[in-house]
Structures are given as structure tokens and as C-alpha cells.
Recover the amino acids of this structure.
């Protein structure tokens, strides 16, 4: 079973920030939050991940609440090419288990 | 960034035939590769974990004799769908774990997928 809950779909205007929420209330101390996205008929693309601190890279920012029970992926200036299904995944930091369990994700539609 | 390729990108075959799909890590070494399947409008479902030089580990409900996986080198894993039937029609996606961690130690990089249609 997926350990995360995400809205089924969201809309965003082109050029505006897209804020995608994710609930992971059962996350454990050694589990990271990962975000991937999948553009239609393509393989998933890694976006960002974090443990407890906020993270930023060239694609997005990840804000994790202090209790780590939820997080928000922020695309600061969404473009039409950001239309995709965004997956929030909770995963153990390592050991022998590197598996990713995909939930249903959020379909983000960026509108002109 | 790390690149993973899949071949073929699309394949159409007759029922009862076998189809081989290749997954290659082009610019990094991958001791572990994963195979996923995705039906229309559904999420990715992990089928098996492929480890270089050893037997693959299959997820519950996935028939290992039907979906043969070979990971003969650090850059190549193959998935063979044996005696394919129309219900095997799906989007098959592989991913590879970069053991030297270009992004970070545990990152997985995904291939572009292979669309299999069984007539």
C-alpha cells in the first residue's frame, strides 16, 4: 500500500507557482520523501528528495513540515511542459531496499 | 544526468510469441535495475528487481517463468515476456540505480518505456 496521500488532480496557470501537497502521516524516522514526475507516455523523472530539511534544486523546492507528516513540492514558475503526473514517495534511506512504491500521484495541468 | 535507454520503444507481436525488452544504463554502472509495468490510466507497478550476476527478485503475483529477467552486466538488463497474450499488453519501464551516486547514492533513473501490444 502506498504510504502517501495526494490530490488526484490540480490546475495551475502558466508562470505561476504550482504547490503540490502530499500527506505521509505514517512516515518513520529513516524514511525520505521523494518526488518524481511522469509526462504522458514517458518514464518517470526524478525531481527532488529530502529527509527533514527543506531542499531546493534547479527544478523545484521541497518543503517538509517539522513533524514530517506532510510535504509540499513547489514548482516556482510552472510552464506548459510541467504538465505531468507527480508522485510523492516515501522510502527507506537505504539498506537492501531501494524499491519505489508508486501511488496514484497528482495530475498537474498547467494552463496557458 | 544519468541516461537509461530501452529497446524497442514499441513492439507489436502476435499472441503466443516471446518478446525481449532491453534496458541499458548508458553512462553509469547499475548493480540493480528494476522493472515496472503500467496499464492505461494506472500507476507504475513494480514487477521485479534485477541484480547483476544473480537471480531477479519478483514481486508477489508476478510469474517468474513468464517474465524472464537477465542482468548479465552492470549496464544491461533484459526482460523477456514469454508466450505473450493480449492481457500482457502494457507499458514496461525499467529503472537503474546509480551505484556511484551522481545525484545521491540511492537515486534511480528511469528509461523511456516500451509499449507492448499483443494481438
Amino acid at each position: 500500500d502506498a504510504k502517501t496521500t495526494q490530490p488526484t488532480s490540480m490546475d495551475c496557470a502558466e508562470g505561476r507557482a504550482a504547490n503540490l501537497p502530499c500527506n505521509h502521516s505514517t512516515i518513520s524516522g529513516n524514511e525520505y520523501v521523494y518526488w518524481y514526475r511522469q509526462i504522458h507516455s514517458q518514464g518517470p523523472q526524478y525531481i527532488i528528495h529530502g529527509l527533514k530539511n527543506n531542499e531546493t534544486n534547479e527544478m523545484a523546492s521541497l518543503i517538509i513540515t517539522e513533524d514530517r507528516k506532510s510535504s509540499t513540492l513547489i514548482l516556482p514558475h510552472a510552464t506548459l511542459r510541467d504538465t505531468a503526473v507527480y508522485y510523492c514517495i516515501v522510502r527507506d534511506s537505504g539498506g537492501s531496499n531501494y524499491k519505489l512504491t508508486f501511488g496514484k500521484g497528482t495530475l498537474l495541468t498547467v494552463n496557458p | 544526468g544519468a541516461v537509461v535507454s530501452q529497446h524497442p520503444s514499441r513492439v507489436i507481436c502476435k499472441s503466443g510469441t516471446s518478446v525481449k525488452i532491453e534496458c541499458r544504463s548508458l553512462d553509469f554502472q547499475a548493480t540493480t535495475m528494476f522493472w515496472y509495468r503500467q496499464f492505461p490510466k494506472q500507476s507504475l507497478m513494480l514487477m521485479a528487481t534485477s541484480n547483476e550476476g544473480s537471480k531477479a527478485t519478483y514481486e508477489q503475483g508476478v510469474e517468474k517463468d513468464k517474465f524472464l529477467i537477465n542482468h548479465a552486466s552492470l549496464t544491461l538488463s533484459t526482460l523477456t515476456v514469454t508466450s505473450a497474450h493480449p492481457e500482457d499488453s502494457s507499458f514496461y519501464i525499467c529503472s537503474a540505480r546509480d551505484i556511484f551516486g551522481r545525484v545521491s547514492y540511492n537515486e534511480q533513473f528511469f528509461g523511456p518505456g516500451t509499449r507492448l501490444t499483443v494481438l
Notes: The two ends of chain A are 36 Å apart (CA to CA). Chain A has a mean pLDDT of 92.
